[in-house]
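Amino acids appear as letters; backbone shape is given numerically. Here is one record.
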Amino acid sequence: MVSEDRINQHILRILSRDGRISNLDLADRVGLSPSACLRRVQDLEKRGVIKGYRAKLDPVQTGRGFVVYVAVGLSEHTKEAQEGFEAAMRATPEVAECHNVAGAFEYLLRVETADLPAYKAFHTDRLGTVAHVRSITSYMVMGTPKDDRG
């Protein structure tokens, strides 16, 4: 966002918090005419700065209210082991995010399930059966005082 001018930065901040804002309201908030605002938003979309829009769902009502961050260490540090693990995570619906990280372990996952028994089943039956998984450390989310993800 550093390369964007201040108006585009303002547009992006507003859209990241409310992707359903009307162009008329967005234009008013950033001080542009509706046509100029729409041109800027379309340009941001075309250049891939805005990758898409999504609905923010209630995790409890969608059966994903139990959130656990999971640190995963692999037994092998090969490309094949990493690709296999990443493919397994892409195919696992409980894994909302999978990040390859540097440090004491290789992956940090954001896992969303309905409750603790559902997480235990994921831990034992899904994650625990993936090839090359050496260690699993779970961090249950107790509360979320801030979440700016779109």
Summary: The two ends are 16 Å apart (CA to CA). The longest strand covers residues 66-74. The CA atoms of residues 24 and 34 lie 6 Å apart.
